[in-house]
Model the fold of this input.
Amino acid sequence: MSAHAPHGGVSVVVCVYTEDRWEDILAAVSSVRAQSLPALETLLVVDHNPALLERLGKEFKESEDVRVLANAGPRGLSAGRNTGIALSRGGIIAFLDDDAVAERDWLRHFAAGYDDPLVMAVGGRTEPVWASGRRPAWFPEEFDWVVGCTYRGLPRGKVRVRNVLGGNASFRRSAFDAAGGFATGIGRDGDKRPLGCEETELCIRLSRARPDAVLLIDDRAVIHHRVPAGRERFAYFRTRAYAEGLSKALVTRSVGADKGLESERRYATRVLPAGVARGVRDFVLARPGGAGRAGAIVVGVLTTAGGYALGSLRARRSGATFSVVGIGAAEGGGGPS
Done:
């Protein structure tokens, strides 16, 4: 592939919400600036934090490649992403977490996927950077999604998938024309329980709107995601697993259980039992953490299932609590419709 920006160029959207991650935000922007395939622009979307908006505005005042924007929708990650999509100029929109750094060829690998006109989304591989310097012995790789990273059980290489993972993903602009934006009411809000799955819901909705759409993961598109000390604790593990169950209940209400749980069934029936068996084997062989990993998988499954059951009950009683907005196209990349 040439070094020229393909397909109208790549816009990178980084959603930010707290000054506590100031150094992380600057590191994320630096990693985008160092790409072997230059980004058309980086959009920092600030989630209802005037002090951070002002500080970033000053920091990047003289920068032609970085734009600082306020989230134009309700508080939360989904509306922040939708703001970035609407105001971006690229034919491809990539998303990077505010506490992650991308490897040098991240965008190059993303862009290569779009040489096929049927490809609507390309995701990558997210590696954890543990605050303690190493993975906790009890923490199973099968549950790395708890800390926003690629987990054991996902296919390797460049493969078709049901959905990409939102902190390390890209979409063709026309994907949002076909399916609308990220649903609000499913995803994360900095002040609330850490719900997720908004990218799963979007990808399933996209595949319905465009049955011929191809969604890929290319595990050469690598980012390194910081895991703070608080997320290395078992209490966070349990809380996040429960929240995932709640989120999955909303997703299945939106898109149906067949698609909403398609990948999860394989994960639960094949990947997790193998993980428990590995943990038990390691325990028998006196390897550190084996029993803890096996136990964590069992607790994670039960906690996620409990969240899903309660979330399904709530969704039936109260109706869906999410909404999907269209992403309008205006001159130079769009504005909210």
